[in-house]
Write a structure and sequence with these properties.
Order of helices and strands: EEHHHHEHEHH
Number of domains: 1
Strand order of the largest sheet: 1-2
Strand content: 5-15%
Helix content: 40-55%
């Protein structure tokens, strides 16, 4: 396992990514079980990483549903997005991501593949100070996330577990 964090970047190994995608595919087809997720993760570090992303996604989906806006982002799609941006902030590309950022604010854009990217706190604060409806100029390359990231089956195919 090779989950390393430097002061600016989190490095997730291809083995860790594959296991996380297998877990995400398993969750898609089965009832979520913490015991089973822990078993599939293999290590406590990997378990903590996948649970953090599951919790992050569920929180944003719950917020979107509460606001009666679209809530369709799946765990597999979110992991594809994280991989596309190398687990870094989509705005600056330098720091490890820290939050799920909504390109269009949540009440207007929902929690969807087209509207969610990884962000760092610095860029999110900068974005909100300037104009909450327009991302910083450095971020313009991210529009069209669905075309960049692809479908739920783009990155990895599940292994029978």
């Amino acid at each position: 396992m090779n989950i390393q964090t430097t002061h600016t970047t989190m490095i997730v190994s291809s083995e860790d990514r594959e296991i996380m995608f297998n877990i995400a595919h398993w969750i898609t087809n089965n009832r979520k079980s913490v015991k089973k997720i822990r078993q599939l993760a293999g290590t406590e570090e990997r378990y903590m990483l996948i649970i953090r992303e599951i919790d992050r996604l569920e929180l944003q989906l719950t917020k979107a549903r509460y606001m009666r806006t679209e809530a369709t982002l799946t765990l597999v799609e979110w992991l594809n997005t994280l991989n596309h941006f190398h687990w870094r902030c989509a705005y600056c590309g330098k720091k490890s991501f820290e939050v799920m950022s909504h390109i269009t604010p949540l009440p207007d854009g929902g929690t969807t593949l087209d509207n969610c990217v990884p962000g760092c706190y610095t860029c999110i604060r900068h974005n909100r100070k300037d104009n909450p409806y327009n991302p910083p100029g450095k971020f313009l390359h991210v529009y069209g996330v669905r075309e960049i990231v692809g479908s739920a089956d783009n990155f990895s195919h599940p292994i029978n577990m």
